[in-house]
Amino acid sequence: MKKENNFFNPDTIPERIQELNNDPSPLARELQETLAAYQKLEERFDRVMGIADRYQADLMKTNEELVKSRDEIRKVNEAISQVNNKLKILSSITRHDILNRVMVTSFYSENVRDCITDEDLKKQLDAVKISSEEIKNIIQFTGLYQDLGMEAPAWQNIRNILSSPSIQNMISDITINYMEDSLEIYADRMLEKVIYNLVENSKRHGENLSKISFSCHKEGDKLVLLYEDDGKGVPTGVKEKIFEKGFGKNTGLGLFLIREILSITGITIIENGEPGVGVRFEITIPEGKFRINSK
Q1: CA 64, CA 61: separation in Å to the nearest integer?
Q2: Which of 278, 282, 283, 281 is nearest to 234 (CA)?
Q3: DSSP codes joined into one string, 93-162
Q4: For the chain, percent helix, then strand, then coil, each to nearest 5?
C-alpha cells in the first residue's frame, strides 16, 4: 500500500516550518517560504468558503421567499381575474338592461310624435330621441372600453385587417392605396377597431372622399405608419382636441378609443394633415412592435 504524503497536510504545516528553521540550506528556506505561502492560501480558502456558505444560505432563503411571493402573486392574480369576470358579467347585464329601456324610450317617443301636431312637443320628442341615441352609443362604447387590454397583445397584419368584411363594406366606393410591403404590428387585439374607426371617421367627415392611403417609413429605430385621405381634413385648432373624450358632433369617442387602444403597446398617434386637403394620421410604432415582410 502506497504511503500517504503528509508534507502539505494543513495540520502538520506549522511543524514542518519549525523543522526547516533549523536547516540553513537555500532549499530549506525555499521550502519554508512555500509552506508559509501555502498556509496563507489555505487560510484564505477557508475564509472564502465561509463567505460562500453564508451567501449560499442567503440565496436559499431568498429563493424560498421568491417562491412564496410567486405563489401569493398567483393567488392574488386569480382573485383579481375572478373579480374582473364578475364585474364584466355585471356590466354586460347592466348595459343590456339600459339599452332595452333606451329602445323602449326611443320607440314610444317616435310613436307619440307621429300622433301629435304640436310643433313644440315634436321638437321636445326629437330631443328625447337624439338623447336616446347618444345614451345607446355611450353604453355600447363602455362595452368596447371594458374589453380593452383584457387579452394579451398579438401580432396583427394590417392588410388582413383591411380585408375584414366590416371595413370592406365601408370602402366599396373608395380607392385604397396600400404599401406593397406586408406590415404586422404588435398591438392590442382591438387593432381592427382602430383601422375601422379611422375609415369610419373619413367616411363621416370627409365629404367628397374618394381615396384613402396607407404608407410607412422608418424614423430611427421607430416606424411611422401614415393614414391619409383626400377629404376636408381637420381644422388647425382642434388637431389635439379630436382625441379627447366627448369632443365632436357625434359621440366623440372614436378617436379617443383609438389612442387608448394603441397606447397599450406604446404606440402613439397624432394628426398633422393640411386642412382642406385631407387628414394625415401619424401612427408611431416603437422598436420591437413592428415587422415588415417585403414581397
Answers
A1: 5
A2: 278
A3: HHHHHHHHHHHHHHHHHHHHHHT---HHHHHHHHHHHHHHHHHHHHHHHHHHHHTTTSS--EEEEHHHHH
A4: 55, 15, 30
Residue position matching grid coordinates 456558505: 53
C-alpha cell at 153: 397583445
Distance CA 251, CA 135 (A): 9
Retrieve residue 100's grid coordinates: 332595452
**pLDDT for 9:** 59
Q: Say which residue, 137 or 272, is predicted with more confidence.
A: 272
Confidence of residue 156 (pLDDT cuts 50, 70, 90): very high
Strand partners, 154: 187
> What's the mean per-residue pLDDT of the chain?
82
The dihedrals phi and psi of 267, each to the nearest 5 degrees, come to -90, 135
Whether residue 158 is predicted with pLDDT greater than 70 in this model: the reply is yes
pTM beyond 0.85, yes or no = no
For residues 35 and 9, what is the distance between their CA atoms, to the nearest angstrom?
A: 10
Closest CA to 213 of 258, 262, 162, 275: 162
Do the beta carbons of residue 202 and residue 214 sit within 8 Å? no
Kindly state the percentage of the chain with pLDDT values over 70. Answer: 85
Residue 191, SS3? Answer: helix
| Identity at 87, one-letter amino acid code | L
The three cell numbers locating residue 8: 502539505
Burial pattern 5-19, b for ≥16 Cβ within 10 A else e, equals eeeeeeeebeebbee
Crossing angle, helix 254-263 and helix 191-205, to 10 degrees? 150
Give the separation between CA 180 and CA 134, rounded to whole angstroms. Answer: 40
